[in-house]
Each structure stands twice: as C-alpha cells, then as structure tokens.
Amino acid sequence: MNNIVFGQYYPTGSVVHRMDPRIKLLAVILYIVTVFFIKDYTMYGAILVFVLGVSCVAKIPLKVLLRTVRTIIFLVLITSIINLFFTRGGKLLVKWGVIKIYSEGIHHAVKLTLRLILLMLFPSLLTLTTTPMELTDAMESLMKPLKVIKVPVHAIALIMSIALRMIPILMEETNKIMLAQKARGADFDSGGVLKKAKAMIPVLVPLFVGAFRRADELALAMDARCYSSVAKRTKYKVMHLSVRDLVGGLICLAVFTVVFLNKYLWAFDSMILALFK
Amino acid sequence: MSIEIKDLSYVYSPGTPYASTALKSVSITINEGDFLGIIGKTGSGKSTFIQHLNALIKLQSGSIKVYDIDLTQKKPDLKKLRGTVGMVMQYPEYQLFDETVEKDVSYGPKNLGLSEEEIKGRVREAITLVGLSYDEIKDRSPFELSGGQKRRVAIAGVIAMRPRVLILDEPTAGLDPRGKKEILTLIKKLKETSSPTVIIISHDMDAVAENCDKVAFFSGGEILAEGAPRDLFYDDDLLARTEMEAPAIVKLTKALENRGVTLDSHPINKQEFVQAVKRWRDE
Amino acid sequence: MPIKFDHVTYEYPMEEKPVVAVKDVSFEIADGSFVCVCGENGSGKSTLAKLMNGLLQPTSGTVTVDDKSTATEVEKELFAIRQKVGMVFQNPDNQMIASIIEDEIAFGPENLGVPREEIGERITYALDAVGMSEHRHHTPYKLSGGQKQRVAIAAVLAMRPEVLVLDESTAMLDPKGRAEVLKVAHELHAQGITIVLITHFMEEATQADRVIVMSSGEVVMDGTPEEVFRDREGIERYDLELPIVDDVAAALSQQGVPIEDKIYSVSTLAEAICRSK
C-alpha cells in the first residue's frame, strides 16, 4: 500500500501547498508541453533544477519525490534499452555480434530517460501538494466554460473525487481477497499469461461484486444527505486567486518560456551575429 | 504439538520511512486439540501473526513449524501447508466468486490437486458439516443466499480442504444473536469432527472466555501473556496493559469482591458463576 | 411529533413476486426519545430506517415527518425531510465522499445551499460534538472504524437534524469503536436530538428509553427495555438474547437466588447479589 505514492497528498503546509490549485494545474499542463518540446541537455538540466527548487519550497523530501519515479522505472528501462539498441546514426561505438550501439542511440536513451523522469516529477509534485478534492475542484473550475455546451462539469468532478477516495480502499480490498484465495491454495505467480489471467477470476469477481455494493451504499448515503446534481449547491471552499498565486504562476510561465524559446533565441542570436559579420 | 513458533518478528516496508514493526520476537507453541483465542486491540499484530501460519506473509526472521512443514526452508511445501492450516478471513462471504455453491466450495480442494471424485466427496461433506443441505444448495448461486448462509458456504470452502488447524478471524462479526450462536456452535462441532485445533481472533471477550481453553494477549506486536482464560482474565494489570475489557462474568466477580464478597473460585462462565454464588450463599 | 408511521407496508419489487419487508406497521417516535430497533437479520429493521427519511417510500400507508408525508415527488420537500432526519449507515468506508474530513462534513450543508461562512461554523460545531476537531484537515483513510463513524455522524450533524438514525452503525466496529459511537449518541440525545438506534447488541438496547422489536416485517414487541427483556418468551421466539448480565441474573433467580426481575448493569447486579444473602 505504502509504495503507491502517486496521488498521495504529503501535507507540509508550504506556500506551494497553499497555492491556488488551478494555477498549479495549468502550470503542470504548460510544463508537460515544454518538456515535450525541449531537446538539449542544458534545458533538461534547467528544468530539473526548477523542479527540485519547487520541491524544496514545498518542503517535500527528495526521497518522497524520487519514489514516484520508481513506479515508472520499468517503463523507463524498457524504452531506453529499445532506443539504445535500435537507434542508428552517429558513430558506431560497440559491435558485438548482432548488437550495434551507436552514439545517437546513447543520446536517445539518455534523453528519453530524462524526459520520462521529468514528466513524472512535476505532476507528482502537484499531487503531493494538492488534495484530490482541491484537484477536482480545480478541474471543475477550469472546465466551467464547457457548461455552456451542456457538459455536466460538476458531476464529472464529483465522480473523479469519489474515484480518488475509493482507490486506496479498493487496493486494500484486492489485497485482502488475494490473501483469502491464497489461503485456499490459489497460485497467482506461476504459469503463462493465460493461466495467470484465469487465476485472477476468484479475485476479480468478489472485487467487482464488492465495488457495486459499495457504489449502491454510497449512492444511498449521498441521497440521505440531500445530494442533487441539478439543485443549486453552495461551495465551502472557494478558490481565490491571490497575488501570491499570480506570482507563482508567472514564475512558472517565465521559466517555461525561457526554456521553450531557448533554441529559437539561439537561432535568433546567431542570425543577428551573422548580420554583423 | 501442531504449531511451533520461535522468535517471530516482522516489519512492514522495511528500509523505508514507512517501516513499521508488526511483530516482535513472538514465540508460542500450539498443541493439537487446543482452542486458542487471540485477543488484542486493532493493530496489535494479531492479523500479521495468523497470516504467518499460512505463509501468506513471507517469513522475515524467526522460525515456524507446522507439523512437519518447516517454513524456514527455502521452498516449503505450500500446498501441503494450506491443506493443513485452514484460514477463514473476516467477512469470508465477501470472497465468494463462483457460479454455484458447489463450484465455489470445490475451489480449495481443486487447488490442492485432488481427484474429481475426492473433491466431490469432500464438498458434499463440508457443506453438510456447516449445517446446510447439499442437495438443496449445491446448484444455487452463492450471491443469492442469505448473509448467514453465505458465511457458512465460505467456511465450507475452507473445511473442504480438511485442515487439521482451523483459524478464524472474527467469525461472528456482523451477525445477529442467533447467527452468532449458530457459528460458535458450528466451530465447536468442527473442532470435534474435522479440525482438532482451532484458533480464533475475537473482540468478543465473553465468547473467548466461554469457548477457548487458552488465550494469547497481543499488544504492540508481542504476546504479553498466554495461558488459561481463568487465570489471565483475572489479571487486572494485563488487561490494563493490553487495553482489553474483562468478560462480563469476571467483571461481576470483581464487582462482588469490591463489595466484600469473595467467591471461592474464579468463575469464567455463567454456570460456574451461578454455582459459586450459590456456594457463597450456603456458607 | 417528528416521525409517525401509519399502517405502513413496504414491498421490494422483485421479478417474480414482490417481497414484503415491512408489513402494516404503525407507531410514533416522540421528540427527544432514544429508540432502539432490534430484530434478526432480514426482519425489516433497515427498511424501516430508510422509510423514516423518504429514502424509501411506503407501498401503502403513510410515513410523516412533522406532519409532512415522505411520499412526495418534490425534491425540495424531500430534502427538508432528510435534513430533519439524518442517517448514518453500517459501513464507514461506503458513506464518505471526500478525501479530507472537513470537505466530507461540508458536503451535506453544501447540498442544502447553506451560505459559505455558516458551513465553516457548522463544521466546527459538528466535529466538536463528536470529538474529532483535531482531524479536521486529515484524510479519513487512516482513522479507526470508530473515528470514521464519528465523522459520518458529524457529517449528518452539520445538516442540523432533529433526528439521528443509526442504521447498524456499530455493527462493524470493535468494542472500543462501538463504545465511542454510543457515547456520542447519548451525548447528542442529552442535547435534545432524537436518536433511533438499529442494533444487534442487546447491551445497547438496554440503555434506550424504548425498544422496538421487529420480526418478519412486523413490530412484535414495543416497550421500555424492562418490559421487552422481561418477556423471556418473546426474546426466545424472536431470536434475541438477554444481555449477559441479565442472563446471569435470570440464571441466579432460576437457581433460587432471590433476584428481582429487572434490567441490571454489572454494579447493580453485584449489589443485588450482596443483598440476597
């Protein structure tokens, strides 16, 4: 249970925690776009420094932040190995039977690894510093324009928040059912894919039956507390943009702009230089 | 002797900031024929402890021997172990999954690799043992049974593996008074007929005092005391340290003591108490 | 007179033939009372509870809350009833919506359209009333069962109900959790809230002012705990049990020890035994 950090709030009460979740969400979106566009090491370095800086301000221990990377380490390894062996170009560095490693391959592998890790880090910071409820509120708020075209924005946000709440409960339940079936001699580890999939039936059936029972009870509990998707509700937590939020947002914007536009600036620079030559 | 445990320790998520010790050097011997009650508040290590008996948790340190199966070995015979130790989890009815009662109950024996014929015989026997009619219930879906029936079917699923040791975690949780009585009667019957050693985890001190011949008090991952209910439930210091309440009969006896009436024995159930009070009145 | 049942029958619609869960039941629950509803599984207790606040509407007969029938199609009227008659369910994990306790408590008042500032005050009041104030900003996931149920009660209290229905809310708890919830129920009763407690635990029933026993959808016993538990034949017939202390008292009296036939606690029975010599 403890090793699933993604989606786990890490309260420290820092400035970052108190920032408007909408700004944080926008920053993450901008960040992802930026990471996809940049290509050189200096810029990866710059972004990494930025992420570490933010996590420092947020008082998130480095260990906790890095643990989020662990969940994708397998994916990182596979993709970088594929890139390492199958990219052709640059100097041939190693030739060992059919295996050929080119300098381009190494560059590709390293960059891809960096990119994947960077892609994981900043969004993790978002979920570490923002409660699921704040996140769904932020999404609801940002999606508000969609209401005009009759998208049930509030219902979507509520569904997301309930899903987030149910994840740890269902994980625990899965674990319990697996133990119970193991006690009845179930074997989840041996055999091929088909056998393993079949072995999961005694876990999945009770899990689904249970999930439906929970959903039923939850619906009843919501009814009992007068929930209506159409009636006008008030909101206890109203998001206010403060000066601090704006400054935070501007800092992110500035960093990403510099990083993002960097190569074009370089090009611009050399163009100007060329003019004066 | 059926189970021997020495110096069993266990840490969850070792080497991480979340590491938490669940068991600290626990040693206990459980003999064949014992009816052991395990008590302690939530988080005292009870569940981690019983999960070890079925190798549901990997042994970290210490040793466990269940009959001739040594769990310290590199590859203990898990099939044999799970056919020896039967485990009924909390709310076992939530683990039913198959289309029919018969199929569900045969899941365990099938995993043991028994023959078709053997499985059929065992399933019939187990369903009958838990007090249900095999012919009436075998083709029904477990999901359409009543709560009490579901729990019986779930227990049958474990009994069909013919365990020598039967472990039940909170077997009466969520049942009405009649359901509770019936399950406790069933457990006693199973102990006499199929599984000579029974271990229950329970918060119901009255039921433990009434049924168990041994109790083990868990607290902070350790066994603080183990012995006859008659001795341990009268130990105020032990109850305080484990944050457990005494059974009602013990409370009554103590309340009498506080009023200057000392009974000539330590009664542990209703009959003993009534007899002791009668003897005191006849003095 | 908040809740009145007048010849109420409820049938669950089933494919083949409807199942009668509550059969021609009439009774009233007086303001400020503490009523315990007992009866074996499937006796109709839970259906009875859901009829009290319009979660279910009678197939025939009427249920009224403050003289207003629960059989209304108008959402506003139904919500007015559910605001007055709050309900807490059995499984603490299946009735929570939010991942932060404060948000959980706010959910009901938000649905009722309570102004924002007042929601804050209500959260403070409700968490105080159940002794969970220090957990206001925490997640419910790590709480004990008893604490979770106290939060569930607070979530209802924030709607300012007149009646609190606890539908087997102690069934899944350990003795400590059960004691916590009962203590809260008695405290709220002392503050004037009407309590309807549905339970299998007879010790809980002896502490009520009134015990209603259901069997096969009908009310078969109704009286003070003394009256109900003195009827040994009824207790036997409806598969109830005497609380252990009273069972001991009965056994003593059968064995010729002069013990009066009434409801005892450990200390009052000890007194009675002392006096018997």
Task: Describe this entry's structure for a reader.
The complex is a heterotrimer of chains A (277), B (283) and C (277). In chain A, 71% of the residues lie in helices and 3% in strands. Chain A is built from 11 helices and 2 strands, in the order H-H-H-H-H-E-E-H-H-H-H-H-H. With 277 residues, chain A is mostly helical. In chain A, a hairpin with a 2-residue loop joins strand 1 (92-96) and strand 2. Chain A has a domain at 1-129 and 257-277. In chain B, a hairpin with a 7-residue loop joins strand 1 (3-12) and strand 2 (20-30). Helix content of chain B is 41%, strand content 21%. Chain B has a domain at 247-283. Chain B is of the alpha/beta class and 283 residues long. In chain B, helix 3 crosses helix 4, helix 3 (101-111) packs parallel to helix 6 (147-159) and helix 4 packs across helix 6 (147-159). Chain C is an alpha/beta fold. In chain C, strand 9 and strand 10 (218-223) form a beta hairpin. The longest helix of chain C is centred in the middle third of the chain and has 16 residues, at 175-190. Chain C is globular. The relative contact order of chain C is 0.15. The chains are: A mainly alpha (277), B alpha/beta (283), C alpha/beta (277). The interface between A and C is large, with 33 and 41 residues.
Q: What's the short story on this structure?
A:
With about 280 residues, chain A is mainly alpha-helical. Chain A has helices spanning about 15-20, 20-35, 40-55, 60-70, 75-85, 105-130, 130-145, 155-185, 195-200, 200-225, 245-275, and strands at about 90-95, 100.
Largest sheet of chain A: 2 strands, antiparallel
Radius of gyration of chain A: 24 Å
Compute the number of helices of chain A.
11
Q: Give the structural class of chain A.
A: mainly alpha
First and last CA, distance of chain B: 43 Å
Biggest beta sheet summary of chain B: 6 strands, mixed
Instruction: Identify the quaternary structure here.
Output: heterotrimer
Features of the shown structure:
heterotrimer, A: 11 helices, 2 strands, 3% strand, C: 277 residues, alpha/beta, Rossmann fold, four-stranded antiparallel β-sheet
How do the helices and strands line up, and which of them pair or pack?
The complex is a heterotrimer of chains A (about 280), B (about 280) and C (about 280).
Chain A: H1 15-18, H2 21-37, H3 41-57, H4 62-70, H5 73-86, E1 92-96, E2 99-102, H6 103-129, H7 132-143, H8 153-183, H9 193-199, H10 201-224, H11 243-276
Antiparallel strand pairs in A: 1-2
Helix pairs in contact in A: 2-6, 2-11, 3-6, 3-11, 4-6, 5-6, 7-8, 8-10
Chain B: E1 3-12, E2 20-30, E3 35-39, H1 46-53, E4 61-66, E5 69-70, H2 78-84, E6 85-88, H3 101-111, H4 116-129, H5 134-137, H6 147-159, E7 165-169, H7 177-193, E8 197-201, H8 205-211, E9 214-219, E10 222-227, H9 229-232, H10 236-242, H11 248-258, H12 270-282
Parallel strand pairs in B: 3-8, 3-9, 6-7, 7-8
Antiparallel strand pairs in B: 1-2, 1-4, 4-5, 9-10
Helix pairs in contact in B: 3-4, 3-6, 4-6
Chain C: E1 3-12, E2 19-29, E3 34-38, H1 45-52, E4 60-65, E5 68-69, H2 75-84, E6 85-88, H3 101-112, H4 116-129, H5 145-157, E7 163-167, H6 175-190, E8 194-198, H7 202-206, E9 210-215, E10 218-223, H8 225-230, H9 232-237, H10 244-254, H11 266-275
Parallel strand pairs in C: 3-8, 3-9, 6-7, 7-8
Antiparallel strand pairs in C: 1-2, 1-4, 4-5, 9-10
